[in-house]
Amino acid sequence: MPNTTHTSDQPITSTPDLPLVIELLQNQLDDLTATVRAQQAELTRQATRIADLERT
Questions:
Q1: CB neighbour list of residue 12: distance below 8 Å, 6 or more residues apart
Q2: What is the predicted pLDDT for the residue at 5?
Q3: Does the structure show a pLDDT above 60 at 10?
C-alpha cells in the first residue's frame, strides 16, 4: 500500500484544476492591468498639473 501522507520532501500527487488556476491568474492579470492604467492616468494628470504650474 503506497504512503499517502504528505511530507515536505514528497511531491504532491494531486492534479490542480488547471482551468480554475488559469481563470484565477487571468483575474489577477486583469486587476493588475486596471491598476497600472489607473496609475498611468493619475501620472498624466499630475504631469499636466506640474506643467501648468510651471507656466505660471
A1: 6
A2: 58
A3: yes
Q: Whole-angstrom Cα distance, residue 2 to residue 34? A: 47
| Stretch 6-22: mean pLDDT | 76
Q: Using CA of residue 9, residue 15, residue 19, residue 20, what is the dihedral sign? A: negative
In the chain, what is the greatest distance between 2 CA atoms, to the nearest angstrom?
Answer: 82
Higher pLDDT, 3 or 21: 21
CA distance 21 to 28: 11
Report the Cα 11 to chain-centroid distance in Å: 26
**H helical segments located in 1-56:** 18-55
What is the model's pLDDT at position 49? 97
